[in-house]
Amino acid sequence: xxxxxxxxxxxxxxxxxxxxxxxxxxxxxxxxxxxxxxxxxxxxxxxxxxxxxxxxxxxxxxxxxxxxxxxxxxxxxxxxxxxxxxxxxxxxxxxxxxxxxxxxxxxxxxxxxxxxxxxxxxxxxxxxxxxxxxxxxxxxxxxxxxxxxxxxxxxxxxxxxxxxxxxxxxxxxxxxxxxxxxxxxx
Length: 186
Hints:
The protein is an all-alpha fold. It folds into two domains: 3-99, Rna Polymerase Sigma Factor, Chain: A (Orthogonal Bundle); 112-183, Winged helix-like DNA-binding domain superfamily/Winged helix DNA-binding domain (Arc Repressor Mutant, subunit A). It has helices at residues 3-6, 10-18, 22-44, 47-64, 74-92, 94-99, 112-119, 123-134, 138-149, 154-160, 165-183. The radius of gyration is 18 Å and the shape is elongated. 24% of the residues are buried.
């Protein structure tokens, strides 16, 4: 992989990809594949579905590269596009929608075990946290996942989920209040 490509800002890397630079395309793919896969797995619960949607996304990107606009955050663009493909697939395929119960806003299941390993939380705190997470709305869970698990800013989240910046801030604020209330020691 070309080292000079790795040091390019997102906009320049994207422009190189749009020009047909295969190394730029590979760099984008390998940089974001695992992040997209983890997100797709959280949403769908099925590795095959997540992987199929990633392949669809990158195939469409390559075929349509010359017609794509410029992006300042490749990560946000990919997550937004991937989310759309994933949800469209789930909604349109009867076999998949029977397997995956997708409400109006799908439920993102936070993997509590990951949080335990990363934060070395005691079993008692884990139980409180799990109960607290169950008190969050589906949108709050998704915003927490994107923010804390994927390191996205509020602005990047608004590019993935079609909601206003202030709505993301409000959802996060309310989610943190709920978590504090249920996790705090009594």
